[in-house]
From TrEMBL, chain A:
Subunit structure: Homodimer. Forms a heterotetramer with IscU, interacts with other sulfur acceptors.
Binding site for [2Fe-2S] cluster: C326
Function: Master enzyme that delivers sulfur to a number of partners involved in Fe-S cluster assembly, tRNA modification or cofactor biosynthesis. Catalyzes the removal of elemental sulfur atoms from cysteine to produce alanine. Functions as a sulfur delivery protein for Fe-S cluster synthesis onto IscU, an Fe-S scaffold assembly protein, as well as other S acceptor proteins.
UniProt-recorded name of the protein: Cysteine desulfurase IscS
Designated gene of the protein: iscS
Source organism: Uliginosibacterium silvisoli
Transmembrane parts of this sequence: none
Lineage: Bacteria, Pseudomonadati, Pseudomonadota, Betaproteobacteria, Rhodocyclales
TrEMBL record, chain B:
Domain of life (superkingdom): Bacteria
Pfam family membership, one: Aminotran_5
Protein name per its UniProtKB record: Cysteine desulfurase family protein
Keywords, alphabetical: Iron, Iron-sulfur, Metal-binding, Pyridoxal phosphate, Transferase
SUPFAM superfamilies with a match to the protein in the record: PLP-dependent transferases
Catalytic reactions on record: (sulfur carrier)-H + L-cysteine = (sulfur carrier)-SH + L-alanine
Similarity comment: Belongs to the class-V pyridoxal-phosphate-dependent aminotransferase family. NifS/IscS subfamily.
From TrEMBL, chain C:
Classification via Pfam families: NifU_N
NCBIfam families with a match to the protein in the record: iscU
Role, per record: A scaffold on which IscS assembles Fe-S clusters. It is likely that Fe-S cluster coordination is flexible as the role of this complex is to build and then hand off Fe-S clusters.
All copies of domain NIF system FeS cluster assembly NifU N-terminal, residue ranges: 2-126
Top-level taxon: Bacteria
Coiled coil regions in record: none
Gene: iscU
Family: Belongs to the NifU family.
Organism, as annotated: Uliginosibacterium silvisoli
SUPFAM superfamilies xrefs: SufE/NifU
Record-given protein name: Iron-sulfur cluster assembly scaffold protein IscU
């Protein structure tokens, strides 16, 4: 086995070797700028870009003309939210999102607040899912945009996108969905879903980093204000030289995802269930987020009375994440787990295991054994574990402020 | 395999084989998210740090002054929109021949109350330094963006001459150095700019990486929010492979600058000697200029037609800039240089690469001569 | 985050893990921190009543690697010291010894507080 064992597929995935193989010729001999209209180098690149666009569209039930290339899901989220909010600002100034969204959505919303928009950050239920009743009650006549992620990056729960879409469409509200964590994991069919804008990333689905896409619905047509201006690439929605090799990589990655996701997800679900079963034999562990409305790839667990960072240190043969990779440098407990109402200490002791295409049964078994051993060792070190064993309710203890 | 001779290096360059080698592991086993705190993440974080040093070193900047972006267009947008967002609306001055990715974001600022001032060029395509200095002193722009080298005619501009007046007017100076890097020496401090744009795929690196180099005086608002990567100036998971390639390409571009520019110059001079025998009108062509770029037209010959013919004959060159693509308008750069639209429509650009061979240029000239002969006969027939 | 070799050593081979009987008259117990902040340290000292010298020390810590290392280190340092000497251990010394990065300085502060709390608890018992 190769150490550390990679169980952090939601942070990023390796490029599938089949994808890398497709990319390399476009990085070396076919190097033309797809915008070059005057020679074959440009044309062949353009053709490859369009073929990839079709592959991306096919995975999500869209038309190729509805796919706009970006540098990644973060840019897609920025473009969708700022672009739509600015375009439709004449209709209203109210935006709605969830407290558990990715920073790319939350930080963008904060920026719009500084520009005079009003944003409602909805709480989620204890299982991590949106409360549709609360959501409906939050809608206002001046609500112009709703942004809800398809699959949460930390706890893997799947939001009811179809239902939210129905509500938004009925009220004429633009609905954006961050689907960075969804592609290849859940079925995404934009011919049925009433979604207007959807963000995609390649590197969460075995494609390369540095490329993503934004779906922009044509019927009914959704308008955006461009955020990056220049040569007018991507029908004016996003200027900048297109990176052919990366686009080809995303196309191939999405093509493979469409072809293999059903069988792959079955295999991954079995591995996740094995991991869950193994880890559940450890006392005082809790799964964060709903288990049924969840992608099969994700297991987020709290190991009570053990601090997360020291646990990650103890299991350094397994590459996992505590909280989201993007908030890495901070010592704050995950804002997503806090939004579920998890007490801070359980949030602190959470680990996100994300399983993927190259995970094996041996990887899972090794991880279970390692966790059993290390959690035991750290609990022996933990004064909180002693107190728990002595029957003391930690919530009744007066802790010195620190 | 049919491989046309590539003479369109200002649009994009072929990746250097050594750069490709350095990148490969980052498309394969070194795949970690650079924000992850485990081994996979540390490996890619270290690689990005190294690339940042390489990019900084290539232009004599400090690594902490380098912000990676998805390319030159984004870096130019980041300067124009990002700096403007934190300032009270005022005047932004841009060169008359700037790339659309400076011009268009500047135009966007008008709605927020900014006005756009153009710094004129002379007939040879160079920035008119005296006129620009006077304009800046009179209109006191907060933001000035003047490209170092023009992508179409290859004129190299005296950006440094604007530094003092911009500072005096209390503004910030930016230069798009995308076409200059790898062809002429580019020194961040000597230019006296606050910010500078670089791009990977114009110097033998991959498409998909660029940088805004900026000093600490200049504050920007990020264009892309979320996660706080690149000191909060550019969020989004880093494109590690492309950044690594960009770093390696920068290092090679500086260590081989002398050799590369001499090679480009020899190829270009050979071309231009041949062009004068064919009665070409060369645009610009006055030093200081890039060693690799020739921009020219032939009276009565349509540029797109000529380029199309040459493409079928196995030569990849450009008419105008790649980005303005489907645009049938004559080049803005040429109009700014006082070229009449009819002649401007004939413009074609040949841009040499680091390894363009003299015999290939000779071959090109031969085919060009034949093609012109054909085209002129055709026009002669149609006139009759 | 890169940990120093000393942090890793204490983390992997923590010294003096364990507990003394809390009610023992010779024992002083300091418990500092809070679970919600991500670290709780329990430091116990066993004091020779005649000499006033700390003869033994034990700890248990819930926290990151640096917190565990800081508490492990101070159990070594306080042994053989008088109570007055022990309370003079400064967090900066701990941070320096373990080469703690700035974001982990609070761990050394917590360890210093734990010593003070244990000494205070001992003194309270003997007041």
């Amino acid at each position: 086995m190769k150490y550390p064992i990679y169980l952090d597929y939601s942070a990023t995935t390796p490029v599938d070797p089949r994808v890398a193989e497709q990319m390399i010729p476009w990085l070396t001999e076919h190097f033309g700028n797809p915008a070059s209209r005057s020679h074959a180098y440009g044309w062949e690149s353009e053709e490859a870009v369009e073929k990839a666009r079709e592959n991306v569209a096919a995975l999500v039930g869209a038309d190729a003309k509805e796919i706009v290339w970006t540098s990644g899901a973060t840019e897609s989220n920025n473009l969708a939210i700022k672009g739509a909010a600015n375009f439709y600002s004449g209709k209203g100034k109210h935006l709605i999102t969830l407290k558990t969204e990715h920073k790319a959505v939350l930080d963008t919303m904060r920026e719009l607040e500084r520009q005079g928009f009003e944003v409602t950050y909805l709480d989620v239920k204890e299982d991590g899912l949106i409360d549709l009743g609360v959501f409906k009650a939050t809608l206002r006549p001046d609500t112009i945009l709703v942004s809800v992620m398809f699959v949460n990056n930390e706890i893997g729960v799947i939001q009811p996108i179809a239902e939210i879409g129905e509500i938004c469409r009925e009220k004429g509200i633009i609905f954006h969905v961050d689907a960075a964590q969804a592609t290849g994991k859940v079925e995404v069919d934009l011919s049925k879903l009433k979604v207007d804008l959807m963000s995609f990333s390649a590197h969460k689905t075995y494609g390369p980093k540095g490329i993503g896409a934004l779906y922009v619905r044509r019927k009914p047509r959704v308008r955006l204000e461009a955020q990056m201006h220049g040569g007018g690439h991507e029908r004016g929605m996003r200027s900048g030289t297109l990176a052919t090799h990366q686009i080809v990589g995303m196309g191939e990655a999405f093509r493979i995802a469409k072809e293999e996701m059903v069988s792959e997800n079955e295999r991954i679900r079995a591995l996740r269930d094995r991991l869950l079963k193994g880890l559940s034999t450890i006392e005082e562990t809790f799964v964060n987020g709903d288990l049924s409305k969840r992608v099969p790839h994700n297991l987020n667990m709290s190991f009570a009375y053990v601090e997360g960072e020291s646990l990650i240190m103890a299991i350094k043969d397994v590459a996992v994440s505590s909280g989201s990779a993007c908030t890495s440098a901070s010592l704050e407990p995950s804002y997503v787990l806090r939004a579920l109402g998890r007490e801070d200490e359980l949030a602190h002791s959470s680990i996100r295991f994300t399983i993927g295409r190259f995970t094996t049964e041996e990887d899972v078994d090794y991880t279970i054994n390692l966790l059993r051993e290390k959690v035991g060792k750290l609990r022996e070190l933990s004064p909180l574990w002693d107190m728990f064993k002595d029957g003391i309710d930690l919530n009744t203890v007066q802790w010195a402020a620190h | 395999m049919f491989a046309p001779l590539y003479l369109d290096n200002n649009a994009s360059t072929q990746i250097d084989a050594r750069v490709f080698e350095v990148m490969l592991p980052y498309l394969r086993e070194r795949f970690g998210n650079a924000s992850s705190r485990h081994e996979y993440g540390r490996l890619t974080r270290d690689a990005i740090d190294r690339a940042r040093q390489q990019v900084a070193a290539a232009v004599g900047a400090h690594a902490t002054e380098v912000v990676f972006t998805s390319g030159g267009s984004e870096a130019n947008n980041l300067f124009v929109k990002g700096a403007a967002a934190l300032l009270k609306p005022g005047v932004i001055a841009i060169g008359a021949t700037e790339h659309p990715c400076v011009r268009e974001p500047a135009k966007q600022l008008v709605r927020q109350g900014w006005s756009v001032l153009e710094l004129p060029v002379k007939l040879d395509g160079h920035l008119d330094v005296e006129a620009a200095q006077e304009l800046i002193t009179a209109k006191r722009p907060m933001l000035v963006s003047q490209m170092l080298a023009n992508n179409e005619c290859g004129a190299v501009n005296d950006v440094a001459a604007l530094s003092a007046v911009v500072k005096q007017a209390g503004g910030f100076l930016h230069s798009d150095a995308v076409q200059a890097l790898g062809k002429i020496p580019v020194a961040f401090r000597e230019l006296g700019v606050n910010a500078m744009t670089l791009s990977s795929h114009k110097i033998g690196g991959p498409i998909g990486a660029g940088a805004l180099v900026l000093d600490k005086r200049l504050e920007l608002q990020a264009l892309i929010a979320g996660g706080g990567h690149e000191r909060g100036l550019r969020s989004g998971t880093e494109n590690v492979a492309a950044i690594v390639g960009f770093g390696a390409a920068c290092e090679l571009a500086s260590s081989e600058l002398g050799m590369r520019s001499a090679n480009m110059r020899a190829a270009r001079d050979l071309l231009e000697a041949g062009l004068s025998a064919l009665d070409a009108r060369v645009f610009g062509g006055v030093e200081p200029r890039l060693p690799n770029t020739s921009y020219f037209a032939f009276e009565g010959v349509d540029g797109d037609t000529l380029v199309g013919k040459l493409d079928r004959a196995g030569f990849a060159i450009a008419s105008g800039a790649a980005c303005s693509s489907a645009n049938p308008e004559p080049s803005r750069t040429l109009l700014a240089m006082g070229v009449v639209p009819q002649l401007a429509r004939g413009a074609v650009r040949v841009s040499m690469g680091a390894t363009t061979k003299l015999e290939d240029v000779k071959r090109f000239l031969e085919v060009l001569r034949e093609t012109l002969l054909q085209l002129r006969q055709l026009t002669a027939v149609s006139v009759e | 985050m890169a940990y120093s070799d000393k942090v890793l050593d204490h983390y992997e081979n923590p010294r003096n893990v364990g507990s003394f009987e809390k009610g023992d008259i010779e024992v002083g117990t300091g418990m500092v921190g809070a679970p919600a902040c991500g670290d709780v340290m329990k430091l116990q000292i066993k004091v020779n009543a005649q000499t006033g010298v700390i003869e033994d020390a034990k700890f248990k810590t819930y926290g990151c690697g640096s917190a565990i290392a800081s508490s492990s280190l101070v159990t070594e340092w306080v042994k053989g010291k008088t109570l007055d000497e022990a309370v003079n251990i400064k967090n900066t010394q701990i941070a320096e010894e373990l080469a703690l990065p700035p974001v982990k300085i609070h761990c050394s502060i917590l360890a210093e507080d734990a010593i003070k709390a244990a000494v205070e608890d001992y003194k309270k018992k003997h007041a």
